[in-house]
Design goal:
mainly beta, Immunoglobulin-like, 5-stranded mixed β-sheet, 3-stranded mixed β-sheet, 1 helix, 14% helix, binds copper (II) ion
């Protein structure tokens, strides 16, 4: 088999794998509970998110801040003592950090694939 033919075959196989089961609405939802404090997390939590999943982050805020979902560019104001829900469809693959800016805390790393 020629090198060119191998590359084409590999590309076709990759397309077959990534193209299956990704119809809109077929991915299971991703629900995340998050308590936002001034200290930030002990460690950033990594969450695997299936591509196409509806992501819902339920935030229990202990401080005034803004929660920022990088990449998807969603910013939600938080009020100390309040709760907020951030929802979006994970339509872009990749790794995205969820941060609060007052303390530069990175709460989540969403790995969408
Ligand atoms: Cu940010």
């Amino acid at each position: 088999m020629s090198v060119t033919r191998r590359v084409v075959l590999a590309a076709l196989l990759a397309a077959a794998v990534t193209g299956s089961g990704c119809a809109a609405g077929s991915a299971p939802p991703t629900d995340i509970d998050l308590v936002v404090t001034s200290e930030g997390p002990d460690a950033t939590r990594t969450v695997e998110v299936p591509l196409g999943s509806r992501v819902t982050i339920a935030v229990d805020a202990r401080i005034d801040d803004i929660l920022h979902v990088h990449g998807y560019e969603i910013e939600t104001p938080l009020q100390a003592g309040g709760s907020e829900t951030v929802s979006f469809d994970a339509t872009m693959s990749g790794a995205y950090e969820v941060e609060t800016h007052s303390n530069s805390a990175i709460w989540l790393k969403l790995v969408v694939r």
